[in-house]
Amino acid sequence: MIRTQVYLTERQRDELASLVKTTDKKQSELIREAIDCLIEQKGADRRARVLQNAAGMWTNRKDLPDFEALRREWDRS
Predict the structure, then answer these.
(1) Mean pLDDT, 10 residues at a time, over the chain (77 residues)?
(2) CB neighbour list of residue 17: distance below 8 Å, 6 or more residues apart
């Protein structure tokens, strides 16, 4: 693991201390769990944005073959 220093607001520190008492987990463990949740959430958001931006990106391309005709040919086989 890599040691990292983080500054917390007083409210964050107090809430974290409360969670430590009620969950019987170490402060560092709770912070790592929270970071994992954030990474998972933001990663999913980022993937969704990439897919949204990619949608229709070939719509105006004129250099591509007629895919519908190709599919019709394959369906006849």
Answers:
(1) 94 97 96 95 84 84 86 80
(2) 27
CB proximity list for 16: less than 8 A, separation 6 or greater? 8, 27, 30, 31
Torsion of CA 19, 36, 46, 3, to 10 degrees: 110
For 40, the token pair is 């998972």
Kindly state the tokens that stand for 63. 């250099």
Pair of tokens at residue 48? 């969704």
Per the CB < 8 A criterion, the answer to whether 20 and 27 are in contact is yes
Distance, CA of 29 to CA of 36 (rounded, Å) = 11
Question: Angle CA(43)–CA(47)–CA(30) in degrees, nearest 5?
Answer: 10
